[in-house]
Amino acid sequence: MKRTTIRAAAATSVAALILAGCGAGGRDGDSGDGGGGGDAAAEGDTTGITDTTIKIGDHKPLTGVAAPGYSEISTGAQAYYDWVNEAGGIHGRTIEYNVKDDGYNPTNTSKVVDELVLKDEVFAIVGGLGTPTHSAVVDFLNQEEVPDLMVSSGAQLWGNDPEKRPWTFGWQPDYEIEGKIMGQYIKENMPDAKVGLFLQGDELGADGEKGLRMYIDDQIVESVEYASGNTDVGPQISKLKASGADLVIGFNTPSYTALSQLVSMKLGYDPQWMYTNVGSDVNLVGSLLAKFSDGSVKDGSSALDGMMTTEYIPGLDTPDDPWVKLWQEVWDKHGEGELTNYRIFGMSQAYAFVSALQASGEDLTRERIVEVIEKDGANWPGPGLAPFRWSEESHLGMSGMAMSQTKGEDYENLTEVLVTDLGDAEITEGDTAAAEDAPPENGIPDVAVVE
């Protein structure tokens, strides 16, 4: 069964880019002390835990120019937590989810995370969104020894140095391994392609380029960068056209996918396009293309037909996928409005966090959940096509993805799921069992408590 990716949390307007840089088991608890008491048998920090509740925090842009799309992620997470709580919670504790609006502004992120940690005394930050925004708080969270889990960004910062950031864990695949998988595909299937790179001028572009050059350095004829917030990409696209590049790879956000397409149309430039999963949601980019063209492009999605990209998690265009069926059931019961891919993204992250709670057992502490994720997280089933890399040596997120190509509004696989790691780690076909995981009947992770 084909499974397509959620295009990772993405800005939905050009203006947004100015800021950017996308009973479950256990015991019946006694009444809690209302203030981070937790189980008396637990040894460690029980901040945010009572006998009956677990309080967690998150930062997202709920208002402002970046809110469209991004703000839906937390509604998906909340719906899944409501589903778990209705079933009795995890080990007798229900989950209290407190998401604060940072407007996708790093200064605001620092303020709201300070409030969550120091005033609200949450147990953990779960799903904090954005490379520039979360970068503003990652050191603070590690200094305060607050679990910083399932960060919504593909930057390596969240997992490549557990010794420096022992409390932080990534979630989605990072940009370097995506570049490696793209590069190998091109080397094997498009060896004569003249490659141009269209890169965002930060970790997104730099890490993607690093992965690509490991395989196709000799095929790259031009590389251009844009600065987030500068919407004039005419010089960059003109330079790519002049280079003779007939395959352009973009490591960029969705707004810049739309802008690169619009400028290319005006220049009569029609290479094969390949975009990072971050920037390749057909429906979103199509709507942005129509908007940026002031309506002159009537069907923006059709302009993306044949685009190549990657996928790592199932989305709405695979309604028969068992995970999508679960997310639809959860949303029908606990959500309002339509289920979207952003909401599925939030549910998928929440599922991983609930798996960590389940594996931690009754005696939950901040130290315990970090230990459990390191020890067993790579083995937990879930909606991802590839397992996590979580261990004592790595806190990076998912280990792989598949190459795919758009056909209308759908995606068709070009490869099996491919897995790898940073640097010169080999690319291999993933374990098919991981890609074929189905959720438990009750929709709640069935993982054993780690000894």
TrEMBL record:
Pfam families: Peripla_BP_6
Kinase among keywords: no
Domain Leucine-binding protein: 53-407
SUPFAM superfamilies (alphabetical): Periplasmic binding protein-like I
PROSITE patterns on file: PROKAR_LIPOPROTEIN (PS51257)
Domain of life: Bacteria
Coiled coil residues, start to end: none
Family: Belongs to the leucine-binding protein family.
Name of this protein: ABC-type branched-subunit amino acid transport system substrate-binding protein
Organism: Marihabitans asiaticum
